[in-house]
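Researcher: I'd like a structural prediction for the single chain below. Treat it as a standalone chain; there are no partners to consider.
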Amino acid sequence: MKRFLSLAALALSLAVIAPGLALADDPLSTVKADIAQLQSDVQVKHDTVLADATTLKNDANSLVGSDKATAKATIKADVTKLSGDWQSLLSVCLSDRAKLQADITAAHEAGIGASEIHPLRHEANLQIRASNLEMRSGVASAHAAVFALRQSFKEAGETAPTVPTPPVSPTGAAPVTG
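Model: Treating it as a single chain, here is the predicted structure.
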């Protein structure tokens, strides 16, 4: 009985390990996994930055007519969170892109043709661009709300608080090629 249980455990562990080993040997599967990871991280970046931008926009809209010190502190905190999240998640996406590029190169060296990789890469680039455009649109909307808040202080005769807002389009990486 002990022998049967140990053989069953060995068979079960081989069944779990074997697909992972097969995946490691297939460069195209590695590229597909890298693309899925990149798309997942881009989606996380999109959702996080869009939520931060919405918070910034709502706070800027609600602070019109409030006192300058409160507005400055609130907007500064929101901008710091937005910028920090954007930069940290951007670095994750850039490292995913670098890994994908290296795996695409390895796949080409392993004999995988461009005709198999190009459609995958092209579709991923289109989805990532659409996600980034939507995210940048949200940041631009937040930027406009902060500008309107500053204008409301100027119109009231107060000096507008100066808080650096994040750029609408940060420096980033070019689409993955290969």
